[in-house]
Amino acid sequence: MCEPEPDLSLCSDYIAALDGSYEIRGGWINHHWAQLAYQVADSVAGFAYAFGGTCIILFLMNLIPGLSLRASEQAEIMGIDDAELGEFAVSYYKHIPQSWTESNMII
Amino acid sequence: MFVWATVIYDPIACWTWNPSGWSVKMGGLDFAGGTPVHIASGSAALAYSLMLGKRRGHGTHELNYRPHNVTHIVLGTVFLWVGWFGFNGGSALSANLRAIMACTVTNISAAVGGITWCLLDYRLEHKWSTVGFCSGVIAGLVAITPGSGYVPAWAAVIYGVTGGAACNYATKLKFFIEVDDALDIFAEHGVGGIVGNILTGFFAA
Question: Residues of A with CB below 8 A from B96's CB?
Fold first, then answer.
C-alpha cells in the first residue's frame, strides 16, 4: 500500500494493479530498495514466532497425560499403522521372506 | 491442531493480511502466504521434529527410510499442483487479470523448480529422478506463493530455479542440525517460503 505522499508513478505497479485497485511500490526492479528489508523482517519474525510458539505448545502438550508426543517403543517397532489401526497400511514388505532382507536385496 | 492454528497461524496471518497488521503497515508483500502458511508450517515441523526426537534406528543401517511408493508421491504432487492454482489464483479474491497472472507464474515456477531439482539430482546419481522432480515442483510452488500476484511472468523462472536449488541444498541442513525431519518439511516449506519472500523483495512490480 502506498502512502499518499510518494510519487504516484512509483506506485500502482503493473502486475499488482491488474485487479484495478491495488497499489504497491514494488521491489528492486522498481528501485524500491527497502522492500527487501521488509520481506526479510517479515520472514524472520514469522520463523521465530512459529518455531518458538510451536516448541512451547508441544512442551506443554507433552506434560498432559494421554497427550504424550512419542509413541511407546513397542509401538514404534511394530509400526504405528499396526499399533494404532490394527492393520498394515503398506503390507507387502512385511511378507517378504527373511532370506531376501538378509541378502541386502531390500535394505 | 486447534491450539496451533489459533495461537500460531492466526496472529501471523493477521499481521500479514489485516490492513492494520504491522507487516502490512511496514509495506511487506505476501500474496498467498509465504510467511503465515509456509514459514509457519515449515518452522513448526522443524520444532516438532526437534521436540519429538529421532525415529528409532534412524541414521543406522537397521532401517533405511526411503520413499516407499513413487506412485503416491506423483499423485500427491499432482493434487498439490492443481490445488495451488486455487490457492494462489484465488488469493486475488476475484476472477481478474491478476488472478490469471498468479496462476501463470505458479505454473511456470513449479515446472522450472521440478526441472532444476531434477538436474541437481542428475549431477549426483546420473538418473532422472521422479521423486526429485516432484520435490522440485513443490519447492517451486512454495517459492512463488508470496510473489504470485506481484511479479511478472519472467520472474517466475528465477523463482523456480532459486527455489528448487535452495530447497534441494536445504535438505542437507537436517544432517547439520541433527534433527530427524522425515519429510524435509522445513527444507521445502520453511526455506522455500523464505526464498520466495526475499525474491518478492527483488521482483515485485
Answer: 18-20
Range of the domain at B166: 2-203
Burial class (CB in 10 A: 0-12, 13-18, 19+), B125: exposed
C-beta atoms surrounding A42 within 10 Å: 31
Is there a contact between B198 and A36 if contact means CB atoms under 8 Å apart?
yes
Express each pLDDT in B120-161 by its tens digit: 999 888 889 899 999 999 999 999 999 888 888 899 999 999
The tally of domains found in chain B comes to 1
Residue B108: give its domain's CATH number: 1.10.3430.10
Closest Cβ–Cβ partner in A41, A43, A54 for B47:
A54
Q: What's at B116, amino acid-wise?
A: T
Q: Which three cell numbers stand for residue A77?
A: 517397532
Cross-chain residue pair B204–A35, CB shorter than 8 Å: yes
pTM of the shown model: 0.82
